[in-house]
Amino acid sequence: xxxxxxxxxxxxxxxxxxxxxxxxxxxxxxxxxxxxxxxxxxxxxxxxxxxxxxxxxxxxxxxxxxxxxxxxxxxxxxxxxxxxxxxxxxxxxxxxxxxxxxxxxxxxxxxxxxxxxxxxxxxxxxxxxxxxxxxxxxxxxxxxxxxxxxxxxxxxxxxxxxxxxxxxxxxxxxxxxxxxxxxxxxxxxxxxxxxxxxxxxxxxxxxxxxxxxxxxxxxxxxxxxxxxxxxxxxxxxxxxxxxxxxxxxxxxxxxxxxxxxxxxxxxxxxxxxxxxxxxxxxxxxxxxxxxxxxxxxxxxxxxxxxxxxxxxxxxxxxxxxxxxxxxxxxxxxxxxxxxxxxxxxxxxxxxxxxxxxxxxxxxxxxxxxxxxxxxxxxxxxx
Length: 382
Hints:
Layout: E1 5-11, H1 19-38, E2 46-52, H2 58-70, E3 76-79, H3 83-95, E4 99-102, E5 115-117, H4 126-136, E6 140-146, H5 149-164, E7 168-175, H6 181-194, E8 198-202, H7 206-217, E9 227-229, H8 234-239, E10 249-252, H9 261-274, H10 282-301, H11 306-313, E11 317-320, E12 323-327, E13 334-335, E14 339-343, E15 349-354, H12 368-376, E16 379-380
Parallel strand pairs: 1-2, 1-3, 3-4, 4-5, 6-7, 6-8, 8-9, 9-10
Antiparallel strand pairs: 10-14, 11-12, 12-13, 14-15, 15-16
Helix pairs in contact: 1-9, 1-10, 2-3, 4-5, 6-7, 10-11
GO molecular function: amide binding
InterPro entries: AmiC_PBP1 (IPR039570), Leu_Ile_Val-bd (IPR000709), Peripla_BP_I (IPR028082)
Organism: Paraburkholderia fungorum
């Protein structure tokens, strides 16, 4: 590897079914790299990003990860949105002593020494979402998702959380990633017949907007049967018809409406980097702060080799737009600041439930009952 630069890989899709969100992650990653380089880089060496477009195809994520490691001399990769992409890349980095920084909420129940998970684990979004939905709307949930690993596993977790709350699953359905209108219509007919109190959607990509738009056309009312989601964010809302997302419920550690000084600066920087009008998402915020975590660890370790870099990473934190974040040594996941929000008429997200504290990552949901007790004592914002 050249001593003049620190090479890193960037794998986010600029085309394909999940490109709307991944473009925000790519922009945030490059923004953070630019900020670090403008300050002189790390130990006088610039960070050089080598980026490819995997087009939302897991096989291309795998192939480009191999190219980054084997041909481009990269040890660090920032990338992946869908869990199928992450699972395609992990064997590559594990075999090559490389490290993947993964900035997307996911289904949990995974650990790799070669992955840093900076998106929310289920105890940092699913618990909060189910608590809010069951308390305010009811305990009969209909589960709908895209046909791949994250929705199946996330629906399993959410269904179990509703059962623990004394509720039940009224139905469950999966749609193709390349969804068609007939798929949406069939799902809405099944939901209407089941009459749930709430819908939990783990749809991803372009199908998200199709589903919310069709929900509105059918005359369903979010005041009495809202869609709750972890994966719907500002990028998907921007793809919907005006008003389609209004009243629906989402959970994440970050919303672009946060009024912290750090977030105001971040939004301004994203507007300059990604263009005015680019939605800023929780996935983008995680993509941004994980680069800064890496740079601080690199400063401390003087090496991008996995062992010294990880030792340094576990000892530092970063003042992210959502709040101070750090990586847990025991599971390589990140301490985050969970929130629940409701989409307003402008298509932005108002916080309606805020624990007001940083939550330790528990990707295997070992401490579920203590977390439930903590949430019951949390702050609700009306």
